[in-house]
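Recap quiz, item 2
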Amino acid sequence: MRADPDRIVVCAGFLGGLGVLADLLRRRGARSVAVESYGLPHHRRLLRRAGCDTPPLPFDDRGTRPFDDAATARAVLLTPSHQFPLGLPLHPERRTALIDWARRTGGLVLEDDYDGEFRYDRQPVGALQGLDPDRVVYLGTASKSLAPGLRLGWLVLPPSLVEEVMDGMAGRTPGVLDQLTLAEFLGSGAYDRHVRAARLRYRRRRDALVAALAERAPDVRVTGIAAGLHAVLQLPPGTEQQAVRAAAWHGLAVHGLSTFRHPDAAVSPLDALVVGYGTPPDHAWAGALDALCRALP
Amino acid sequence: MRADPDRIVVCAGFLGGLGVLADLLRRRGARSVAVESYGLPHHRRLLRRAGCDTPPLPFDDRGTRPFDDAATARAVLLTPSHQFPLGLPLHPERRTALIDWARRTGGLVLEDDYDGEFRYDRQPVGALQGLDPDRVVYLGTASKSLAPGLRLGWLVLPPSLVEEVMDGMAGRTPGVLDQLTLAEFLGSGAYDRHVRAARLRYRRRRDALVAALAERAPDVRVTGIAAGLHAVLQLPPGTEQQAVRAAAWHGLAVHGLSTFRHPDAAVSPLDALVVGYGTPPDHAWAGALDALCRALP
């Protein structure tokens, strides 16, 4: 994605960007930011701490349905290119509906592109921001491509928000050494080389995961694997907690999908494991894969 | 100052610490944080953006008078060891009065120790936090001792605030590489050596500044020089703006004291220059000193 540099603000990771946007929304009187039915609990917590309710939006096989049940929200936070954790891209019809909502109501779309660098199988999914740069804030991060501990991310902003966001960045800017290092890394081409190499490595891991499951757990359906660093392993109803415990017993830190379910979500709970394959290091990978297969019901 | 490590939180410079505290105060219903009559405008702006009024406290030659005129404030932000920019330490009587106020009202004192490393002439001034660790938050920063662009600071917190502050740090933590580097710098003793060397260098600069002014501008009274990286040059009434312009004409960036005056302060304006002597580099220092003397009325 190319964007006018004047609209880009470097922030302290995704959470740093979300924090400054949440403050901006509160100052503008927003009391509600709609979120997806599945997502990271600490994102919702940050929004609530900033004074915004987080009503969940429902979803189906085309992805999140904008604003059937959360019409009072002034903004929506979502992961359109690779829903976290379910893994599907938002259907084009839904993308259009979302932009329509934003234009009709003056709402703001917060586009969390948390793992946009790691797309394996198909053409890149365009950023929602491209559909309406005046209504969508794009949030990118180096947390997946480099390391979450760096606390480096970036906002691509509608021009009308730049000044207010810059003002709100006081006390929220990352250290200048980190920023300059990232700029050098990007400008020299080394970042691109790193991402390409990492993408190849992660793709091989994903392929090995899918192959191992097909052989040893053929009843488990694996989804959300076109991109990113995790897969969703759908389990028979009622077996999620047992599988999480079995995985832990084998020394694996995998999450049940229920960990990410919005407590007010109207959708029926799904039983699944969310399996990140960015770790462990290579020497431990085969063993971890074997342990995972043994942990499945 | 020694403090229980469990009470220390690393933050993105002083402003990062103030930001998380301002959010905490707002969530607890505070609508007002009293500040000094002279101080940094962007500190007041950050507090106001977080939803807190910033009523100014009056001062006299013993320093800031706590809460004659701002009794509704739930917290006070001040620079007790070396008032910025006036340069005086808070009188012991006022320190006691401040702690008394905090105990009586359940108020919180935010102690900005912005240049605590650079004290030249006398015994160290104890941190206010030592008087009542349950009522005072100490804010330290590496901005003066290392560089402001690093965005590294620390809070020493009352035990009752630690959990809430940690929760509020989401999206506000400095990068882990910077934190680890600072920890190594502190642990190895290199930070202490650096500060000692810098203190000697700055002290020599201060002495040269005072000597040059005594010789070439004997009518100018120099204050606030027991510590820190700046001096206050008191000017005849009505000459501040002219002196600032003359300094700029000589290529010097010095501020008039009025830049730091709270717009609602009840005290009469003072005419003075606030002259930082941390810059320029050594090779340009003698020239800058000469230019300053020529710019004075």
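The longest strand of chain A covers residues 136-141.
The interface with chain B takes residues 12-20, 23, 27, 42, 45-46, 49-50, 147, 149-152, 167-168, 170-178 of chain A (CB under 8 Å).
End of item.
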